[in-house]
Amino acid sequence: MEREMSAHERLVPRATGTGDLFAVRGKQRYLLILMCMLLCSIMLSLALGAYAVSLKGTVSVLVAHLTPFGDVGSLHPVQDKVIWNLRFPRILVAIVVGVSLSVSGAVFQSVFRNPLVEPYILGVSSGSAFGAACSIVFPTIFFSVQGTAFLFGSVAVGAAYALSRVRGDTPVITLVLSGVIIGSVFSSFVSILKYVASDTALRDIVFWLMGGFYYASWDDVFVSLPIVTLSILFLWSYGWKLNILSMGDEEARCLGVNPEHAKLAVVSVATLLTAYAVSLAGIIAWVGLMMPHAARLLFGPDNRYVLPASALMGAIYLIVCDTIARTVASAEIPVGIIASILGAPYLCYLLRNKGRVIYG
Amino acid sequence: MNTMNMMDVGDLWFSYGKKPILSGASFFVEEGTLCGLFGPNGSGKTTLFKCCLKFLAYARGTVCMDGTDISGLSVSQMARLVSYVPQDHAPPFPFLVKEIVLMGRSPHLRGVFGASSEDKRKVCDVLDSMGLLDIADSPYNQLSGGQRQLVLMARAIAQETPLMFLDEPTAALDFSNQLKVWKLVRSIVDDGVTVLACSHDPNHVSWFCDKVVVMGSNKILDSGPPEDVITDATLGTLYAEPCVRSYSGSVPVIIPRFSPGQIPSFPWGACP
């Protein structure tokens, strides 16, 4: 009793200091700034392009469609078509893909306790690539490129998971190694398909592999927005548990988090999200590795902030990359190429200057 | 079963494949005491620990904590009953000290975003009482080994469980930090927590523990108060290198036994 009294007394002068120890206002401000940056990049990306539209024109198109105060009929028809039917859905799909890849990247890094993991680690990309290639080479059997890519991406990860499961336990190293094995098997399947494909099909496969948002439509947006929003909210609700999981299985267990259940839940949702993103836009490298890093630089390792922050940053990054991809040259460049080229210097910077901050 | 005991382990069996690690281990820990689990490397201490924490599934036997058989408890129920201080380690992400300690509150969190101001106040309380407030904002994996050990113990204290397990709490620490940690463990016990700590240092267990459980070659050799258990005979069974219990004042000290002629010139016996 006496001990408690003295501890309490010592704390009294710190009554305000106690609140400061866990202050979060700075982090919330950063999140707000990121949201503003996202809005700005959306507006800029809408206005820029082969057919330039003024910011004022862009705003009036958006106002006419999104709010009751405008009249769609009074809009310039070409501007309306370019902004509303072509650029806006494309930007939304870019956001969806950026958010999915970077959030699943953050999740994978925590679960696998390794800041160098990216969401393709379990073989999603090779599986999806095989699916897409199948669909391109045999369009009559696999009629939907997207559907087949998603299916085989999930199959690949499922196979990796099954391969690594030993007596009810899934050791991380085994899981990553089986991901590598399954990935290389599917890569060689893709090579076989490339070998037998006709010239046009081969060209399509290569383009698909480089990633892009050329065919983004409102239908994609309507399907993907609810799926991705729900998955992200689900993963975000695991934010604190992800922190605990990153301490290791035994510690997670003694802190009241069942590692097998939690890992299965978040890894499967993150995998489906990645497979979905890949099926929408092809393979876009680095985003899932880089954005969680950048988020950790700003917010520290707490996943309750890292997840939303990397979601916002991933969205901004892919919007920027896609805008560059469709404006910098007369023909469109696959966005995957731009993302890799822009990403490499950033990663070099991280490696040389911030290694200690991130890797501890 | 004796309900006075905080922990009761009965006839525990475990093996890795065909290699038996535990063959019928039984012991108990009374409430509010510090029990040392003592034995040489490879004697099965850690396995026994992990079985009691349900990290490993034992083949036969029972483990009761606070009167409940743990085989039916869920992970989160276990986490409210027993906390665990692992050996020193470096997590892959640079969490801050306060975040690590807040993790100890997880079993008590309800909502999605969890930590209430009450939880945060408790974390501050623990950090303050252990003198860790100054490093509360430092990244955990840039601390020294001794500080890390203290932070992990702070986390276990913040977990507010009736039982606490410590895995080799002083194995990686220097002499003064070893004493600091053991004294801290004593004060945790004085606050009413029952502690089971494993250690391979006969001096530590005989200086600080109320009771010692001695493990050797996959079974429990003896248990009881340290002065009855840490004897020349026990040490002789455990170690090929003979040791002897001596006294410095009234404090028992275990020292190596030297054959005549080794002392004084070459006490550690490398040269004749």
Number of domains of chain B: 1
Sheet with the most strands, sense and barrel status of chain B: 6 strands, mixed
Strand count of chain B: 12
Report strand order across the widest sheet of chain B.
Answer: 6-7-8-3-9-10
**End-to-end distance of chain A, in Å?**
40 Å
CATH superfamily of chain A: ABC transporter involved in vitamin B12 uptake, BtuC
Q: How much helicity do the residues of chain B have?
A: 25-40%
Strand percentage of chain B: 25-35%
Rg of chain A, rounded, reads 23 Å
- Looking at the structure, the CATH topology of chain A is ABC transporter involved in vitamin B12 uptake, BtuC
CATH topology of chain B: Rossmann fold
The SSE order of chain A reads HHHHHHHHHHHHHHHH
Structure classification of chain B: alpha/beta
Number of helices of chain B: 9
CATH architecture of chain A: Orthogonal Bundle
Question: What order do the helices and strands come in, and which of them pair?
Answer:
The complex is a heterodimer of chains A (360) and B (272).
Chain A: H1 2-11, H2 15-21, H3 25-47, H4 55-66, H5 77-111, H6 124-137, H7 145-164, H8 172-196, H9 199-210, H10 218-237, H11 239-245, H12 249-254, H13 259-281, H14 287-299, H15 303-327, H16 335-359
Chain B: E1 5-16, E2 19-30, E3 34-38, H1 45-52, E4 60-65, E5 68-69, H2 75-81, E6 82-85, H3 97-103, H4 117-129, H5 145-158, E7 163-167, H6 175-190, E8 194-199, H7 202-208, E9 211-216, E10 219-224, H8 226-229, H9 232-238, E11 243-248, E12 251-256
Parallel strand pairs in B: 3-8, 3-9, 6-7, 7-8
Antiparallel strand pairs in B: 1-2, 1-4, 4-5, 9-10, 11-12
Helix pairs in contact in B: 3-5, 4-5, 5-6
